Every structure is written in C-alpha cells, then in structure tokens.
Amino acid sequence: MNNKIIITVMILGLLTLTGCSGGEQTAEEPIYACPDGDVTGVKAIYVDTLSANLRYLNPTVYLIPRTANMETIIINTLKTDGSYSGEVEVPCLSKGTEWKPIALTKQDVSHSIEQPTIIFEGAKMVLEPFEGKGFGLIRLRVEKGSDNVFYDVDCDSRTHQWLEMNDDCELKDNSYTSNSLYLDADDEIDITLHLKANETRKQYGEDGLNTWMIVDAGVSEWQEPEVTINGALANNVVVQLSNTDRLIYNDYEYAYVIGSIGNKETDIGFYIRTIDGVEPSQSPLIEFCSEGRYISNKVRNAVLVGCYSDGTPKQMVSTQHKQILELKIV
In this structure, are strands 39-48 and 4-11 parallel, antiparallel, or unpaired? Predict the structure, then answer.
C-alpha cells in the first residue's frame, strides 16, 4: 500500500504541510518528501485579503506539471466556509516531480495567483504568504474637460453621479434634445473619465497583469486621441494585446495600459479631434478590459493570460459584463 503525504496548500494565504518529518523551512522552490510510486494528498484554501472580515473564495486551482509526461491536476472544489478543499492525489517519482499551483481568475469573483514551483522530493518546506483580491467592476463619472461639469451617462439607468458600468453605456449631452453629442466638422471631444471600483474592497484589474482601455475611433473620421492617466501621457500599445485579444479587438485602433482600478480614483483624460473638414458619423467607443489567467483550450498544460480565452466561443476571463462607453454623436 502506498504511503500518502498530506500537503495543505493555502492559495493566497500561508502554505502549511502535515505528515512529513523535519522542521519547517522557506525556499523559492519548496521541496516535499515523496518517494517513487507514492502519492501526495494536496488540498487548498483561498483567502480574500481585501475583505474587512476573513472571507474565503472558490476559484478553480490547478497543478500544472513541469515534469515531462505528467498531466494537469485540478484541486478539488474550494470551500467558502473557511475549511480546506478535499484532497487530490498527486503522483510521485524518486527523481522528483515539479508542479506549478495556480488559482485561475474566476469571473466577477476573484483574481488569479501563481504559487512558486513545488518539487516533491526531499525535506518539507513552507511557502511565503500570498495576498489576493476580490474582483470588482468599474464605476465612473464623465467630466466635460476639467470644468467640474458632468455629463449624464446611461447604462441601465441615467445619471451624472457615480454609475456602475454594466455592459454598454452611452455618454449623453443634456444641452441637446437628442441627448447625443453634437459635433460639426473640425470639432473635438474633450472629457475626463473618473473611475473607481464598484465596491470599496474590490479591484478591477489584477496586480501584475494588464488592465486596458481600448478605443475604436475610425481613422477616416478621427485623429489619434490624446490620452492621459492621472496626468501622465499614455502611449498607444495596441500591439501588446494578446493574440486572442487582438482578434477580438481587430476593429479597435488604440489600446492603453491604465493600471488596476480600486477605491482610489483614477482620472483618465481623453481628447480627440475630427479629421480636418470631416463631419463625423461614427461614435467613438471606449472599452475597458482586465487580463486574467486561464487554462488554454488549444495548448496542453498551458496557462495563458488575456482578456478573452482562446476557446470556441471566446469568452471574457475576468467578468461577464463588458465595460463599454459609447461617445454617442448626432
């Protein structure tokens, strides 16, 4: 009968182990006793450290093999009551097997996290603590230039106060009965987007990954926009989108890395002019997207990063709700 070594993995918390001999240590690549032919029992827990009270979330956790001829292993379903998941058995080899524990992004719930590589061979060790965060959406207000005059924004409801983005939103101009922006040839749009997370202890956008503002403004009618983030000029880096995201946003000309959105306000200046002599008919679109980690549907044992997954159909990784603002013109 094989012996079983129980390893407790606390994702986004402290990793502890039981069942092994020897004292606890810390290392970049923790090593656990696991003789050839044995199995190791692994279980996990995920703690949201942004929460005022201790809160547990249940993303999907994978062990990604770094040793040849091993298959990806899914940790049993995580619990939200503060107890650990059930154990899953991981095979051992005398030469050591290497695994990468990863908690994937869970839509509208939790951020992803990567643990250091685990090697099942030798003395036991303890990982450093990890911190994780609950996932939020965006609230915004739209200011006319920097004049302290705010446009109405219409998502499911309409207001010039803070409003949660919920799929498609439209910018309204109360000066005109059509409620749209009225632009002539050689005209401009000059606005400031004020952004916050929709809940105090949530964050839109993961630490270490890109949070994007992506703009569709057809070059036949619009000049390249000027974008500032908290006063600093931002560069168009649309070429840095993931391959899958480039397919999704094929019609979008510009993309800016804006940083994650939390309780502290982020101010984004957006200025765009029409092409000389052109009266525009296209309404510019501004969309926000948050990269997350997901298991590839095409590449074996691969964890990829992007706003959209590479499956069929392609799905948003971080949220089910598109964060789109249409600058609707007459």
Answer: parallel
- DSSP E strands, 198-246: 211-216, 226-229, 232-233
The chain-wide mean pLDDT, for the chain, equals 83
**DSSP secondary structure code for residue 127 in this structure:** P
Write the DSSP assignment of 257-270 as a string of letters.
Answer: E---B-SS-EEEEE
- What is d(CA 95, CA 73) in angstroms, rounded to the nearest whole number? 19
- DSSP annotation of 180 reads S
Confidence of residue 85 (pLDDT cuts 50, 70, 90): confident
Residue 163, amino acid: L
Q: What is the CA radius of gyration of the chain?
A: 24
Phi, psi of 15 (to 5 degrees): -85, 120
pLDDT for res 160: 79
Q: Does residue 211 contact residue 260 with C-beta atoms inside 8 Å? A: yes
Query: Whole-angstrom Cα distance, residue 205 to residue 61?
Result: 19
Of 129, 120, 74, nearest to 98 (Cα)?
120
For the chain, the domains span 4-119, 138-326
- Residue 92 CA to residue 121 CA, distance in Å, equals 8
